[in-house]
Amino acid sequence: MALSQSLQQKLLQKLSTQQIQLMKLLQVPTANLEERIKEEMEENPALETAEETHEEGEMDNEDFDNAGADDEEFENDGSEDEYDNIDISEYVSDEDDIADYKLKDDNYPEIDEKQTLPFKIERTFHELLLDQLSMLNLDDRQKKIAEHIVGSIDDDGYLRRDFGAIADDLAFRQNISATEEEIGSLVKEIQQFDPPGICARDLRECLLLQLKRKGDEGGEVAMTINILSKYFDEFTKKHYEKIQRGLNLTDEDLKNAINQIIRLNPKPGGNIGEVNKAESYIIPDFFIHNNNNVLELTLNSKNAPDLRISEGYKDMLRDYDKGSKKDKRQKEAVLFIKQKIDAAKWFIDAIKQRQHTLYATMHSIMDYQHDFFLTGDETTLKPMILKDIAERTGLDISTVSRVANSKFVQTEFGTYRLKFFFSESLSTESGEEVSTREVKKILSDMVEGESKKKPLSDERLTDLLQQKGYNIARRTVAKYREQLNIPVARLRKQL
User: Fold this and answer.
1) pLDDT at 289 over 80
2) Which of 2, 75, 235, 455 could form a disulfide with 489 if both were Cys (CB 3.0 to 4.6 A apart)?
3) How many CB atoms lie within 10 A of CB 353?
4) How far is CA 316 from the centre of its chain?
């Protein structure tokens, strides 16, 4: 059997620990950065904030002598060279290692740390329903069934599960045998709870439940109930002529019915308890200030404390360096301490690199979209893709993508997600490239200014945009309209 020998050359990229940490930290928004730093400090005692004291956590010489003896994280091969060639000169310097990565202008006042946001304490949606459930005259078995029904209601206030599925859950999970008729009877009881429209199976039933709770002055409510009961599909599709013919209604009657319906709440449970959700608050990662037409960028570093290497660990290395007797156990402890200090330095450097990368990326975006940050006019936005910012900053496209993801910037015109500023280009008749964001803004303005009795069709919108010099197809207009959550012309029509 003949043996063959070949030479192959492969290009491999191996990421360092710091690079991996940096990539992960870039994706962390400012709101979660403090929590990530706390996790690292809990794992690595050599890492501390600049405000921390060492009276409580400082290790004495006895602890130093025993350090690392029983630590399972530290591993060595047991060779003498490993212990004899310990160089700790760079670890015992007296230089201040506090990291400076705030990237904040001293001209701006610091945020008052003691200032807290007032939170309105409210009961959750399901707690509100359970409180009302206690007012019903139910036995223990019925109460358990009713509680299960309440638990099956979604956050919008709808019961979208079949009675049969609820009966099966009760049988298997709670060993309660209940018929669909019994469940339906309890559902009707729950539908009388506040807010009106709760526990409905669909939108039609939700609206009807709310109308039936109203007083009927002039017979308008009864007429509206009749419309939703018999012509709900036609109403949602705005086939008003068919409704008028079927129920012999005048234009005035139909207008009154529509006014009744638009006052109803399609999501009766959607607005309850929302104030308690932390996700409803956005903490910006950047601030842009207009100082006499000069844009100034600052990085929100409130949740990034100044980190440094623990003085206690440094003191232990100094004691080792000064000591004459250096046994194997002490050397093992020193190697363990060096390992922790190195990890702390890597993390501090990663945080510092994160802040500088965020700042550089946002600064390039600010320069690229300079006109928008001065005026707040969306039509001034330039076409911009990830590659444009990557070329300006010298960063990789994937790095820019990580920065743009889940980051926010606060301006004088509102708070925007960084992804907002990225858009594709569209050519005009003159050959100039404009942002698709600009086209969408013009499209939105056209729909807002149209006659609601005769809304503009996609074909007409296309013609108007082409008259303004934008080379755009009808299907592209339809796509942009859908992205803007604008319904078709027929559904925008009003009487």
Assistant:
1) yes
2) 455
3) 17
4) 44
